[in-house]
Amino acid sequence: FFFFFFFQKNILRRITSLSLPINSLPKEKMALKFDESAIKKAKETLYSSLAGWIVLGYSDANTIALQSKSDRSDVSEMVKELKDDQIQYCLVRLEDSSKDSMVARQDGKQTTKDIFIVWQGPAVRQIEKGKKQGNTGTVSKFLQPFHAELTAVNRANFTEEVVRDKAAPLSGSHVID
Predict the structure, then answer these.
(1) Which residues contact 162 (CB under 8 A, 6 or more apart)?
(2) 65-90, pLDDT tens digit by residue?
(3) How far is CA 163 from CA 78, 119, 150, in A?
(4) DSSP per position, 58-79
(5) How far from chain centre, in Å, is Cα 79?
(6) DSSP assignments along 111-157, one per residue
(7) Using CA atoms, how far apart are residues 151 and 89, in angstroms rounded to an integer?
(8) What confidence tens digit (pLDDT) does each residue in 120-138 have?
(9) Whose CA, among 100, 118, 153, 170, lies 20 to 30 Å from 63?
(10) For residues 150 and 166, what is the distance between their CA atoms, to the nearest angstrom?
């Protein structure tokens, strides 16, 4: 017992006496910034229409900027804007053609569904994905409100039909792979 106590005490003393150089300490994470005026204007335009999309991406390591937008709901056009070596954030507005939405609106107006999609290009390195994973929550809060949140990793399956299917409440997986 004495030997164990003595051994443990020496180990603790050695560990606490270690000093690390200042530059080896982890740097604090920089706060994420947004190009607010351009993004807010694009959101307002999107929310005032029945269909469309906006694509956001990194203009530098800590700044999210508007990369492209459209007032059409053609998801295939949006997919062409996505880069294989980047993580990008999309907000898509589609006309809601489900039976529930048709019954719910007594005034005859068409309802819409807003979908937040995180694009992780297939050429993005794992380290980069890990670094930017924490930014997804910040970006989604900035783009709220929306009805569903999806992650897309495969361009071949990224179609409007798949987006509608995956955005349904009972769809199960919310990953477009």
Answers:
(1) 176
(2) 999 999 876 899 999 999 999 999 99
(3) 12, 12, 8
(4) EEETTEEEEEEEESS--HHHHH
(5) 15
(6) PEEEEEEEEE-TTS-HHHHHHHHTHHHHHHHHH---SEEEEE--STT
(7) 9
(8) 999 999 999 998 988 999 9
(9) 153
(10) 7
